[in-house]
DNA sequence: TTGACTGTTGTACT
DNA sequence: AAGTACAACAGTCA
């Protein structure tokens, strides 16, 4: 479920599994998953090695031993990585496979085909072209305040906008707003200094916690709103407890804001 | 069988 | 210009 923390986990995974192994071939099941012509991808990357990684928001960049050859990966809603040895072990949905000379493979799993892989020659140029904002873990309070306050839209859609700040997705925006005691429908330009400060603190808290738990939501601390989603449709009785605010026990509200399913505590996240 | 879905992009309307 | 709403993408899963 690739929001910033999941992409960070995938970055670490690629970094520890797939560097310094010459690429012998790349198998692509569906060219629609590529943002670069398949023949170009092949001739450019065969005999190259991955030498490092970088992440900005939900974008993963894989550096190669040729400085102007960089692989860009976007995981869409369901993308994942799996490093495996024998082709018999090829994971389900490994629709793009980087085959290394040592017999190992890095599979890019694309269950829904919303994922994308392609070549770029410069990260900054790419980020500028796509207007990607500062990473959620790197943005300062001042930058966040400036970017949020010049928007009149609801705070939730604003935080979801990758041009404002990069890396937050639907689940994390809800969590961040919950931790910051801010209603998802408050107008972005009406946030007080104290709210901006709470918001910025919540960014770090939620993102760092998520990464620490390797983005496995069910392991998150009990004070996290995320659990109302996790067991929303569970058949078990004790699930009811998860439908209430972990702090004040009010029933969590579910609605659609900015076209996305939204959970919030109507008692603590008051509309100002 | 139906509906919902973590993301992004484009279009159309206001 | 900026905000809003919505569909489309293509598949899985409950």
TrEMBL record:
In Swiss-Prot or TrEMBL terms, this protein is called DNA-formamidopyrimidine glycosylase
Biological processes, Gene Ontology terms: base-excision repair
Q: In which family does this protein belong, per the annotation? A: Belongs to the FPG family.
Can the keyword Ribosomal protein be found in this entry's annotation? no
Catalysis performed (reactions)? Hydrolysis of DNA containing ring-opened 7-methylguanine residues, releasing 2,6-diamino-4-hydroxy-5-(N-methyl)formamidopyrimidine
Identify the Pfam families for this entry: Fapy_DNA_glyco, H2TH, zf-FPG_IleRS
Q: Which PROSITE patterns match?
A: FPG_CAT (PS51068)
* Organism placement in taxonomy: Bacteria, Pseudomonadati, Bacteroidota, Cytophagia, Cytophagales
What region holds the Formamidopyrimidine-DNA glycosylase catalytic domain? 2-115
Cofactor(s) this protein requires:
Zn(2+)
Q: Per its UniProt entry, which superkingdom is the organism in?
A: Bacteria
**What species was this sequence derived from?**
Spirosoma profusum
Q: Which GO terms describe its molecular function?
A: damaged DNA binding; DNA-(apurinic or apyrimidinic site) endonuclease activity; lyase activity; oxidized purine nucleobase lesion DNA N-glycosylase activity; zinc ion binding
Which chain positions lie within coiled-coil regions?
A: none
What keywords sit in the KW lines?
Answer: DNA damage, DNA repair, DNA-binding, Glycosidase, Hydrolase, Lyase, Multifunctional enzyme
